[in-house]
Amino acid sequence: MCGAKAGGPDASGVTAGETTIQGSVTRDGEPVTGYVRLLDATGEFTAEVPTSATGQFRFYAAEGSWTVRALVPGGTADRSVVAQRGGLTEVSIAV
C-alpha cells in the first residue's frame, strides 16, 4: 500500500467505483501487525488479509453489512460496518 494517512491507508490506490473497506489496527495508539478478517452479515468467513507494518488493511467487498475482525498477538476486536456500493468505508480498530 502507498503512503499512510490518519484513519487508514492512502485512498489513492482505490479504484473509483470499487466498494472498499479499509483501515488500521492499533494498540495504545501504536500500529499492530497481524491479520484482519472480513465476515459477512451471517458471520461467515469471507476473506483475510495481513496488516501492513503500519497496521493498515484493505478489502474490496460487495455493498452491505460486514464485520471486520482484527486478530493480533494478545487480542482480537470486531467492528461492524456498512459498505456502500462504490464507496470507501474507513475502519479504525483498537485492540
Automatic annotation (TrEMBL):
Cite the residue spans of the region called Disordered.
1-28
Task: Name the SUPFAM superfamilies for this protein.
Answer: Cna protein B-type domain
Task: Quote the Pfam families the UniProt record gives.
Answer: DUF1416 (PF07210)
Top-rank taxon: Bacteria
Q: Which GO BP terms apply?
A: carbohydrate metabolic process
Q: Any idea what this protein is called? A: DUF1416 domain-containing protein
| Originating organism | Streptomyces sedi
